[in-house]
């Protein structure tokens, strides 16, 4: 997904700045670079492996139980790690199993596969028992899909996190409340909104960082709209994973621990919620496990 070497440089910058949580995935095509950056920082004495929290992801074409462990092992091999800290099901919709990341037929129609999320979960539990992963989680799951796992007979390990879109224009109040009741951490992707790429982004919402209210707080705190948006989520117990390859912005995104928003400001930012996703994955909206038809 990135120019060769850009990922290594960014991860090294992030570690120097103070980041310890690295969100990755096999399908990003850069796990070898992440591993290289972490190893270099370990050799420098900047961090130890146990200081780093790496999240890897199981893609939709690898949800068959027998594919789970070999797929995780591939990630470990690329990173040259003995374990990952968190491994998550990237989305509840299974695509045709195999090595093609985005399988379609000759007419360009998506090739779906029946999801058996409980069977996938059992295979993940076995990976945890084998010491290949410390914790297990999910991504883009709605309440019903979370309950499918939580209520699974013989459940050994529950999901510790659900990685979903979450920001001031899409605050996820109901899903957040449900997850908090079950001790599931919400990890917010696109916490600053997203790029404006029409091939996968819903452009009906205006760019979050141009929001008038977020920008009105800049002077008071001497912070950018991005920093205000990140602080908002952190303050309500949501983990944020802003993506950047720009060294200045990597630094800026980390400088959110030296101020607090007032209760009133938090309420005002909650009030910006438009309940509109930037990342709606509409190309898969006819999949039986498409998560976003449900209210939450």
Q: Taking all residues together, what is the mean pLDDT?
A: 96
Beta content comes to 5-15%
Roughly how many Å apart are the termini?
Answer: 30 Å
Q: Sketch the major β-sheet.
A: 7 strands, parallel
Subunit organisation of the chains: single chain
State the shape.
Answer: globular
Extract low-pLDDT stretches: none
Q: What's the total helix number?
A: 11
Element order, helices and strands? HEHEHEHEHEHEHHHEHH
User: Which structural class best describes the helix and strand composition?
Assistant: alpha/beta
Q: Percent of residues in helical segments?
A: 25-40%
Write the layout of secondary structure elements.
Blueprint: H1 6-17, E1 21-23, H2 31-44, E2 53-58, H3 65-79, E3 84-89, H4 117-129, E4 133-139, H5 143-150, E5 161-165, H6 173-181, E6 185-189, H7 212-216, H8 218-221, H9 225-235, E7 239-240, H10 247-254, H11 263-270
Parallel strand pairs: 1-2, 2-3, 3-4, 4-5, 5-6, 6-7
Helix pairs in contact: 1-2, 1-10, 2-3, 3-4
Can you put this structure into words, describing what you see?
There is one protein chain. The chain has 296 residues and is of the alpha/beta class. 36% of the residues lie in helices and 11% in strands. The chain has 11 helices and 7 strands. It has helices spanning 6-17, 31-44, 65-79, 117-129, 143-150, 173-181, 212-216, 218-221, 225-235, 247-254, 263-270; strands at 21-23, 53-58, 84-89, 133-139, 161-165, 185-189, 239-240. The protein has a 7-stranded parallel beta sheet with strand order 1-2-3-4-5-6-7, covered by helices on one side. Helix 4 links the parallel strand 3 and strand 4. Helix 3 packs across helix 4 (117-129). The protein is globular and about 55 Å long. The mean pLDDT is 96.
